[in-house]
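FORM 7B: Structural annotation worksheet

SECTION A. Query
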Amino acid sequence: MSTSFPAYPPFSLPDAEQAIALQMASDYLTRVGTQAATFLLGCPKIDGDTALIAEFSNTLLNSAALCAGLVEIADEQDRRSNASDAEYSETRDAKAA
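SECTION B. Predicted structure
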């Protein structure tokens, strides 16, 4: 069974200011998620706190990926829009000549 998705997301895209904020959030969440994961590489005693740190690290890294994905979608839509604008301008200029 094939599922077809629209060429555009079914939600509003972040504006330029929001995209910057999402990128900053992604960078921060990646850094602290990685720091938490690095702590676990030191082989601490396995207990509830360790499990909580592991879960927290995963949540931080997943959240970072979500933020980065939203920025990527916005960038892709922007590139498509710019390409369409350029194609329209070239067609218009060719017809005018």
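SECTION C. Observations
The helical segments are 16-41, 48-96. The chain has a mean pLDDT of 85.

SECTION D. Sign-off
Analyst initials: ____
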